Amino acid sequence: MAALISANVHLLLAFLPPVLWLLFYLREDKHPEPKLLLVLTFVGGMASALLAMVIEVLILGGGGIAQGSIGLHSSPFIFFLVIGLVEEYVKYLPVRFFVISRKEFDEPIDGMIYMMTAALGFASLENALFSFPFFFSVLENAISVLPLTNENVILSLDVATNRFLGANLLHALASGIVGFFLARRWFHPHRHHFIALGIILATLLHAGFNYLILVREALSQGIFFLILLLSIMAVIVFIDFERLKNQKITDKTTT
After folding, report:
1. Which residues contact 65 (CB under 8 A, 6 or more apart)?
2. Rounded-to-integer distance, Cα 129 and Cα 124, Å
3. Phi, psi angles (nearest 5°) of residue 145
4. CB 185 within 8 Å of CB 192
5. What's the CA gap between 215 and 207, in Å, rounded?
6. Which of 4, 68, 120, 158 would bridge 60 by S-S if both were Cys, CB 3.0 to 4.6 A apart?
7. What is the pTM of this model?
8. What does the alpha-carbon distance between residue 69 and residue 60 come to, in Å, rounded to a whole number?
9. Phi-psi region at 204: left, alpha or beta (left = phi > 0; alpha = psi -120 to 50)
10. 25 HSE (CA, 13 A, CB side)
11. Residue 73 has what pLDDT?
């Protein structure tokens, strides 16, 4: 029973930060989306995290991502660029296959809402995977849950807080930018290249964030640049939200 409670607490701390961000952004939607479709998109985002792991290992090397042909130590920015491109593209897939062909996808703002939902599903599973070494131990080839001690709970909270303010927010903001371009493309059919542009821009911002995380201790103002980057992305997403909120579309285009 104690092990079950401990596991539940750790999982809660892994999933709570993305859910909080999701609830925050859903408040921006004047016409709430169907809960079932939001859940489907969120779960699709979780599945996309697993897909991203497989693709990254295949591209960067089966011997471990950092040991692959595009190594972290040999070319860090290119390494993060590849990671960013894979992750930003797979986060788009749940929306592409589950959402945009449905009648509920009927407003420009929906592009950002569903992309950010998929992104936070992605972040939830990523939280759990990144937290695995902190929450579990492997003893005699068997996985056991670490006891629910004050030290372990504090460590869990530390991981959850850092990812809430960093990686989780990054995923939501980057996909929010892709969602803006998705709206522009989907409701304006002559803009065929817009989704690709959105993914490229999100990839560059994603790679820049990861690179700054890597070198932040070497830079005298590394933390400042991280905060600045996230702040710029937040402003962009806020402006995009406001631009799409009141935009009315009478003719929805499908592909």
Report:
1. 56, 57, 72, 83
2. 9
3. -80, 135
4. yes
5. 12
6. 68
7. 0.78
8. 6
9. alpha
10. 32
11. 54
Q: Provide the residue ranges of all domains of the chain, joining segments of one domain with +.
A: 2-245
Does the pLDDT of residue 253 top 70, yes or no? no
Return the bridge partners of 143, or none.
Answer: 138
142 — phi, psi (to 5°)?
Answer: -125, 140
At 74, phi and psi to the nearest 5?
Answer: -80, -35
Q: How far apart are CA 252 and CA 193, in angstroms?
A: 18
The label of the residue with tokens 């509920």 reads: 104
Structure token pair of residue 38: 């939001």
For the record, the structure tokens of 161 come out as 């807080």
Instruction: Supply the DSSP symbol for 252.
Output: -
Q: Give the integer Cα–Cα distance in Å for 223 and 216.
A: 6
- Pairing state of beta strands 142-145 and 136-139? antiparallel
The per-residue pLDDT for range 34-48, each reduced to its tens digit, is: 999 999 999 999 999
